[in-house]
Amino acid sequence: MGLEIWLVFITVITSYVEGIYSKAQDSVDLDLADSVDVLNELGASFPPLESPPVHFATENNTVVTAQTGSTALVPCVINNIGDGTVTWIRRKDYHLLTVGLATYSSDERFQAVHLQHSEVFLAFQDWTLQIKFVQQRDAGLYECQVSSHPATSIFIQLNVVEAKAVIEGPSEKYLKPGSGLRLQCTVLQSTEPPAYVFWYHNNKMINYDTDMGINVTTELSEKSSTLTITSAGTKHTGNYSCVPSNAQGASTYVHILNGENPAAMQHGGRGLSWLQCSPSSWLLIAFSLVVLMC
Q1: Which residues, other chains included, contact 177 with Cβ-Cβ below 8 Å and sequence gap of 6+?
Q2: Which of helix, strand or coil describes residue 267?
Q3: pLDDT band at 263, cuts 50/70/90?
Q4: Cα–Cα distance between 70 and 72 in angstroms, integer?
Q5: What is the mean pLDDT of the chain?
């Protein structure tokens, strides 16, 4: 009998608790319904969630420098692009270059390169404009535009430079036999190191000409090359040219004196240079003499 009494007690308690929970739930449902009715009566509405605006990770008015003959990369990194399409425009003539990955220019050197980068909570899209074999005429302002609403743009300035080599010192050098010779060549305005630097003596490549007593040391990362001769002789007289792989070459002429006077060699023949006049100059001189004699 004791067990039966406990079972009846538990049943009564369970029913009581379920009744209380049911009433509480009904009260909550009524409150929610009443709240919705009140909001509807007031004409309240909830706008849809808006996507974040387009953001350019590349700064506006960024300046990019490339040297002639190289591949120029004009950057445009974008966040929150959504369904927008990226368009590249050359501003000086408003020429449409690319839309998405499609190239609209007849110049096949232009191409859009698309890469995607993911970081914490962010997804960046890289829409770089690639220009192969860049030329001086490619310099100018470029627009990277996203077809959002409204359209959003940034502008990138491309500068194109002409890399050139320079040999330190005067264009002509004078040495006595047995003197040491050192020619230092540096590549200027180069955006990247050369693949090689060749030295020429009277049009003959001499980088590895040990028979001439020539030693060439090149530091490609430093964009420089040095030619040295421990003891110069008359065979070393002539024109020396430094020719990098990606820049205009430079030249200097070396004179090895053999008893000559450097001043005489430097100015020899120039005292008679007035004889090398053009025919029109001779006519003017003759006319002036006639006038003076009259």
Answers
A1: 232, 233, 234, 256, 257, 258
A2: helix
A3: low
A4: 6
A5: 81
